[in-house]
Every structure is written in C-alpha cells, then in structure tokens.
Write the structure tokens for this entry.
Amino acid sequence: MSIPEHTPQTDSTPEEAAVAADVEATTADADALTEKAIADSAVVEAGEVPAPDGDDAASPAAPADETPAPVPSPRPGPPAPAAPAEPTEPGAVVVEETWGRVTENGVVSVREGDQWRVVGEFPDGTPQEALDYFVRKFADLEFKVATLEQRHTRGGASASDLRGQATRLQKDVVGATAVGDLAGLEKRLTTLIEALAEATAEEAAAARAAVEAAIVERTAIVEKAEALAARDPKTVQWKQATAELSDLFAAWQNHQQNGPRLPKAQAQALWKRFRDARSTVERQRRAFFAELDEVHKAARDAKNRLIERAEALAPRGEEGIPAYRTLLDEWKRSGRAGRKADDALWARFKAAGDALYQARAERDAAEQAESAPRIEARKALLEEAKVVPDTKDLTEARRILTGIQRRWDEVGRIFPRDVERGLDDQLRKIEQELKQREDLDWKRNNPETKARANDLGSQLREAIEKLQEELAAAEAKGDRKAIADAKEALEARQAWLRAIGG
C-alpha cells in the first residue's frame, strides 16, 4: 500500500520536494511490481479463493474432522486481518521463518506476538516465492516509514503534513497483508507521530505569530492608503499621490502572494478597507482633473481672446504698447490653461507684443544714431567743466560753469535715456561741488556771522584766561582733581576758539 496521494499542500524546499518525488517514484515502482506479481501468480490473499474455471474446477472437500473454510466474497480492497491464532487451512507448514510461514498449499501467515495471522495465499508458486512476495510488501511499508523518519530528521518539511502521512501509514501497517515485524514498524510510527505532535504545535505557534505579523504589515499598508484618501484633494500633488498608491498596491500584491495566508474574515475586511481607500483616491483624482479641465478650458478661451486683441494692435506700432501692457495684466489674471496649451498660447501672445516692441526698438535705434553727435558734444563739455573745481576764484568758476550749462541745454535730448542720465549725473556732480564751495565762502564772509564769531571769540579768550588762573592755583595747592578739571575745561575752550578762527 502506498501513502495517499491527495495530502494537504504545504510549502517545502527544493530538497524536500526531491525527497518526496523519490518516495513517490519508489512507491509507484513497488506497487507496480506488486500488481504484476499478483497478476502473474494468480495470488489469492486471506479470505479469497480462485474463481472456478468450470464445473470440474471445484474446490477440494475439507476433511471430515475439520470445519470447512467459508467462501469469502471478492474483496474490494485490502483483506481483513485473520482472527484465528492457528491457520485453519489444511496442509502442513513447509517453510517457516522468524516472522512468517507457508503451508504446503500456499497459505502464508505472519507472526504477531505468540500468534499467527493468515495474510494470503500463493498457490501457483513455491512456498519460498509465496513468503518472499509478502516479505517484499513489508519492505515497501518499511521503506515508507524510513522515508518519513528521514524527512523529519532532516527538517524543513511541514511537521503537520508529515504527521498526517504517518497517521495514514499507521492505518496501513495495522493488519497489513505483509510478512515482517509489523509491531516494531507500528511502534516506530507511533514514536514518529508523538515526535511530530510537538513539532506540529511549535509549527502552529510559529504560523500564528507569522499571521499576526502579516496582519500588522497589511494593516499598515491599508492605513497608508486611508491616509492618502483622507487628504484634501485641493492640496494633493496627484502625480506623487498616484505613484504612492501604485506602490502601496504593489506592496499589497507582494504581501498577498509571498506572505502567509490570513484568516478569510480578516483578509476580506482589510481588502475592503484598502479597496475603499483606493476607490476614494481614484474618485477624488478624477473629480480634481475633471474640474481642472474646466478651469483650463476657461483659461484657454480667455487667452485666445486676449491674443486676438493683442494681434489687432499691430497696426498701431509703438503706440499700442500701453494697451498691450493692459492685456498682459489680464493675461496674468486669466489662470493656467495646462502646460502645453500655455506654452503655445504664450508664444502667440508674446509674438504680438514683440511686433509692437520691435517698432519701438527701430525708433530707438534711429534716435540713438541721431544722438551720437550730441553725446560727443556733451562729453566735450564735461571735459571743459573739469577746470571748475580747480578754479579758486568762485566768481570765475561760476562764470565758466554757467556757460557750459547754457551750451549743455542747447545740445538737445539724447537717446537712449540712460546715456543721457549718465552724462547729466556727471555735470550735476561738478555743480554740487561748486555750490558747496560757495556756501562755505558765504558763511565765512557774512558780516553778521563775523560779528557773532568775534563776540564768541572774546568770551572764549576771557574764559581761557580765567581757567589758566584756576589751573595755576590748583597746581600750587597740589589738588589733582582740580588740576584735571581745569585742564579739561581749558582744552575745550581752546578747541572752540580755534574752530571759529580766533
């Protein structure tokens, strides 16, 4: 008998998968040999008799002093274990070994403790062939047990899966139609099942911990998606938000595919929250861009009208510049029409303005060409004005500067204006220097100012004489404080007197 094929699917390493494949292949080969031997040898196991070939093929009569064996019905599966302690079939034992024996008519029995149990018949072969056939069936069972023990020892396989296979194999070993130490084999399976029970408990605890951690991780993904959905759509950078949502969905799929399987109720609840948050973000994004499209459309219409008005100013030339500036202010207030549309619309609007400013540029170029000799004339006047600061006679300096100013005005306007302003600033600097000299001279030669200065000088000289007397008296007394005060006051009056020219 083989291990049932339909076992629960569990995760296994490539090494475990290879071992399992070897087990299944060996089991399949053993089963095929078993079936072939049964077919070739016309085996009849415990509880079965060969089907009669005709009327003359009757089964031999039982001896008068023995109970005839009942005729069993054809078995659909493995034979039921025989109950009697001694074989009831006629015939003496021909071959007997430690775990099995065969009678002269091919009935095979297995020893279980102190009793013998019939496992089947092999009438068409020799007694040794009959015994060897059932020994091979035991070897198949022992190989399966050894394989499960090896997989458990090596580790990596699912303990619960191995335990399930061992339990099913144990049912096959009990009452098996095989010759061998079935009790020892069953004991090995019992020991293996007990060892796997503890490993299964640890495996279940680890699985529960992994599921709890997976719930936390998947909940974190859901909460991030809900945080995106809760943001004000007007403040969201939708390109970035869409990328973040895509990353979260990819993380969800990766976690769902590679992480542990969550309980159905929790998995569905988390998915509903994630799906709702994702739908909210998508709905807000569509609404935002639908509204933005309307805004862009209104801005495009407004800017197209401004372009038409700007292009209509072209015949006015430079005179249309003030009107164009007004249109430019309206353009700034009209809002955005989308990057591509804005670039194209602005190119048209700017081209209309460039035509107007080109007319001004042409006029400026003509004026600059006309102003070239005037610029040279004013530069020559500035050279003449350089003698004004060096002229000591203020009256003569004023006469020279006045003549230069008169000729300066006669030169006329200069373009561009910034060149004219630069030349005017140079002449104005010379004018200011001369004015400062004249103001200072007036202050010095003003009779009223002189009278006040003379009166103040007399007062200061009297104060100086008095302080000198006080200083001499303080020095005579040796009063350091009085000496210091007298010196400080004397120095101050002397400085004032020098300031007024006294």
About this structure: Confidence is low (pLDDT under 50) at residues 1-89. Strands lie at 44-45, 93-96, 100-103, 107-112, 115-121. The longest helix spans residues 182-230. The first strand starts at residue 44 and ends at 45.
